[in-house]
Amino acid sequence: MKTLVCSDIHANLEALESVLDVVEESGVDRIWCLGDIVGYGPDPNACVALVQQKAELVVPGNHDWAVIGQLDVADFNSDARSAVLWTREQLMPIHHDFLAALPVRQKLGHFTLLHGSPTHEIWEYIANAHIAAAQWQHFDTAICLHGHTHVPALFIRRESDGRTSRFAFPQEKPFPLPAGRALINPGSIGQPRDGDPRASFAIWDDEANTWTFHRVRYPIEITQRKMLQAGLPTRLALRLSYGW
Ligand code: ZN
């Protein structure tokens, strides 16, 4: 069975649809989504509807929570705050209710799914090996799948000596996980921040027991045009061209 793991769609419908095309082509059986479906982008309702329809497991992110009023927008920078306030006005009640009902943490088999980190599911960024090393005691499965940083990453706690380090993985090429526990971040579909503007996601093949990190192009200029027409901050539209 192939599982597509994705995060941080951020109301970017063109990016999400491009990833779903890959799902069709590569025989993916199920989709897990690690939060921040909305915020920043111009299509919150369409993205929530697609995720609700297509994803087997979903957890909420900080932007989802801000939009439904579970987090204070004062904690966001001004562009993010503008986008949250705009999204609040757009979001249909049925999609609001879907986001409000999501559990912050899901567990299935040897996976824990959450947005930020096992220590703080909604807010904490696992940005380096030091922060990753502090997470192992806060979840009890072999692997934790998370998002939030918008940067694809893999941290491993080695079985031999218990040390945590960042694992350099290949792109577009299946690889087995090294022995030990793992924190896996598939990157962001709708607003990548690693210098590569293409939508980022990962696929787990449980028969081969391999992971593959993928990137896919999408028509960025369509998303940008919609954002500017909606009156969303120009900077948020511009950054999509560069992946920062
Ligand atoms: Zn995000």
Commentary on this structure:
By secondary structure, the chain is an alpha/beta fold. The chain has one domain (2-241): 4-Layer Sandwich (Purple Acid Phosphatase, chain A, domain 2). The protein is built from 8 helices and 11 strands. The protein has helices at 13-26, 44-54, 62-67, 78-90, 93-100, 129-133, 220-230, 234-242; strands at residues 2-6, 30-33, 57-58, 106-108, 111-113, 143-145, 153-158, 164-166, 180-185, 199-205, 210-216. The longest helix has 14 residues, at 13-26. The chain is globular, with a radius of gyration of 17 Å. Bound molecules: zinc ion. Residues 8, 10, 36, 61, 63, 148, 150 line the site of zinc ion.
The helix/strand class is alpha/beta
The number of helical runs is: 8
Q: Assign the CATH topology.
A: Purple Acid Phosphatase, chain A, domain 2
Bound compounds: zinc ion
Count of beta strands:
11
Number of domains: 1
Major beta sheet, strand line-up:
4-5-6-9-7-8
Main sheet record? 6 strands, mixed
Overall shape: globular
CATH hierarchy: architecture: 4-Layer Sandwich
CATH superfamily: Metallo-dependent phosphatases
Unreliable segments (pLDDT under 50, ≥5 consecutive)? none
How would you spell out the order of helices and strands? EHEHEHHHEEHEEEEEEHH
CATH class: Alpha Beta
Core attributes:
binds zinc ion; 11 strands; 20% strand; alpha/beta; 244 residues; 5-stranded mixed β-sheet; 6-stranded mixed β-sheet; Purple Acid Phosphatase, chain A, domain 2; single chain
Write a compact overview of the structure shown.
With 244 residues, this protein is of the alpha/beta class. 32% of the residues lie in helices and 20% in strands.
